[in-house]
Amino acid sequence: MRQKALVVGATGIVGSALIQQLLQEGWEVHGLARRPDALPAGAHGVSADLRDAQATREALSGLAPTHVFITTWSRQANEAENIRVNAAMVRHLLDAVQPAGTVQHVALVTGLKHYLGPFEAYAQGNLPQTPFREEQPRLPVDNFYYAQEDEVFAAAARDGFHWSVHRPHTVIGAAVGNAMNMGTTLAVHATLCRHTGRPFQFPGSRAQWEGVTDMTDAGVLARHLLWATRTPAAANQAFNVVNGDVFRWRWMWGRIAAWFDIEAVPFSGEVQPLAVQMANDAAPWSALAATHGLAEPDIHRLISPWHTDADLGRPLEVITDMSKSRRMGFLDYQPSDDAFFALFARLRAARLIP
What we know:
Oligomer: single chain
Domain NAD-dependent epimerase/dehydratase: 5-240
Helix content: 40-55%
Organism: Stenotrophomonas rhizophila
Protein name: Nucleoside-diphosphate-sugar epimerase
Number of strands: 13
InterPro entries: Epimerase_deHydtase, NAD(P)-bd_dom_sf, PRISE-like_Rossmann-fold
Structural class: alpha/beta
Shape: globular
């Protein structure tokens, strides 16, 4: 039987990379989003709002996927609402595909907030030691990632499918309108610095500037998601997913600046949030887009400074361990600077930056 994938969050950074990988490998691909009008050729769009259980059942009636990949979430005003809404979305989705009885594997993408805590208590309190390892217990705080996992575990016990949980670090990849998009945020910031003469000032903390870190390329994550579906030992397991290299932002900041032909301004001794640096950039970006014929004049569709500030402002070194996947045979490697450069080239080719 041909494998049939349902990718939830099809237009996001992870979902779009995963769809490309699935199509290359000959899968039948259905991409679910509220507005699935920008899927690549060969993918079938499914429009649904997962917050609505009845609408989700109707949208997925008769689809009968063999594999479900959950790569989306909905940001709410507080963690209690994040838990309520995002747990319900996963529950509505898995309830909707349950009647067909065809699901063999469900993969859930979460992230390092599993170890660092939710937005309201991010990188606070008594955190596990780094590098983070999958066997470390959950933090003693409410977290919507835990609620999503629990919905998957409950449905797997009910319906008999295998599951995998994938925990990337900050993901490098392309998407418009994404809530967490460091790569494009830095590309827009660097572009504006070049065209306005504003200094390309590192926005984060001393810990991030000087400490060792890692990241996750969307293509690596896509290949890891597929690897877990066809590796028996990976069934019913959680995995960290990173590129395989480590770096310090004091080095990476210069590499990014050089790509844009600007000078890197190092850590000043104080956090300089992008939310402040870019607070008045909507009008300059719109003017720049008009001058260069860019595809997206609305800067808010491209940037997420709040998310980039959260990552680059962390007061501790953040690095993950990939030994679990390596021991099971996943050996993909991607230099993180090359991942940034490939993204920047893709944004330029798509006329999202000049």
